[in-house]
Amino acid sequence: MTNRSPRLSVIIPCFNVEGYIPETVASCVHNARSDFEFLFVEDRSTKDHTYEALLELTKRLPNSRVIRHERNGGLATARNTGIDAAEGRYLTFLDGDDWLAPGYLADLVEWIERLDVDFVRTDHVQVTGVNRMVHRAPEGRRHIPLDPRTSILPVDDTTMVDYPYAWAGVYHRRLLDRGMLRFHDGLRTAEDRPWIWELHRRAESYAVASLRGVFYRRGVASSLTQIGDVRQLDFFRSFDLVLGELADDPEAHRLRKKALRNYCVVIAHQLLQRDRFERSVAAELRRRAGEVLGRMTEEELNEALLGMGEERVDVLRRIRGGMKGVAA
């Protein structure tokens, strides 16, 4: 590392990813620059030798460090560990089972410096087995500074708060100075939801760049999205945090409608996938979903579910009961 602070810090949480980490590290090697640093946070893997693999593989990656947790803390906590250790003017994230296209990080830095915004968001490539599909960030205005609030609504359309992936972008350190960018410690899933809502409510500027250099691997067996245990239910805490933090927002009434719709979409998704859960977890999912839906007024539910689709509306109606007249 040079005596100067790095321009970019890349934060890479790793947990049980020994089989994928060689490709991840190799992609970092192909993005390395003297003013970039790479921070691997090993979250006490339990099923493989991720830590040992990192120590060996990062020998060929300049300006890299491996930080090991004393105990497993989950993705949000691992990212926070990386944030606390980062020295760069800009920060970005990469999951330990994903990878980057050559030169992608340089392009990220070029765009955020050119536009001088608080953060830049990007498209990404979803990888499922041998199949690859480009996923565009849901904002049509590209390569110009924007007010982040203008990308939260409308309620019934996919917007940037529905695209919460922390690794699809780059973030100026000044966000940390304003009390943003950190994640809620201990969240094991849906950790990006309160985080992206805070950025779009509180940051002053952002932009979307048409970059497609992040390759996001779906269907990884060790991923929490594939595991049907109680950790999946952290999404309840995530959305309760979103709603709680909205309470003091000057546009709380308008934005709450969007947050409730987000909440209902995720609840419906989990209920429709409940067969993958352990029986006790599925029962807890139904109980907590019923409580959340029961706290919403009939008007709030009608607005949240309008146009959501018959299957999702039906499953939510059955859980809450009495939701007559909600249009699918």
Portion in beta strands = 15-25%
State the major sheet.
7 strands, mixed
Helicity range: 25-40%
- As residue ranges, the low-confidence spans are 323-328
Shape: globular
By DSSP (H or I, 4+ residues per run), the number of helices equals 11
Protein name: Glycosyltransferase
InterPro entries: Glyco_trans_2-like, Nucleotide-diphossugar_trans
Domain Glycosyltransferase 2-like: 9-150
Organism: Streptomyces lavenduligriseus
What does this structure look like?
The chain is of the alpha/beta class and 328 residues long. The chain is built from 11 helices and 11 strands. It has helices at residues 21-29, 50-57, 75-85, 104-115, 174-177, 192-202, 234-246, 252-272, 279-295, 298-305, 310-320; strands at residues 8-14, 36-42, 64-68, 90-93, 99-100, 119-122, 124-128, 131-135, 169-172, 206-209, 214-217. It has a 7-stranded mixed beta sheet, sandwiched between helices. A 4-stranded mixed beta sheet has the order 5-11-7-8. Helix 1 links the parallel strand 1 (8-14) and strand 2 (36-42). Helix 1 (21-29) packs parallel to helix 2 (50-57), helix 8 (252-272) crosses helix 10 (298-305) and helix 8 (252-272) packs across helix 11 (310-320). The longest helix is centred in the last third of the chain and has 21 residues, at 252-272. The chain starts with 7 loop residues before the first strand and ends in an 8-residue tail after the last helix. Mean pLDDT is 94; it is low at 323-328. Residues 9-150 form the Glycosyltransferase 2-like domain. This is Glycosyltransferase. It comes from Streptomyces lavenduligriseus.
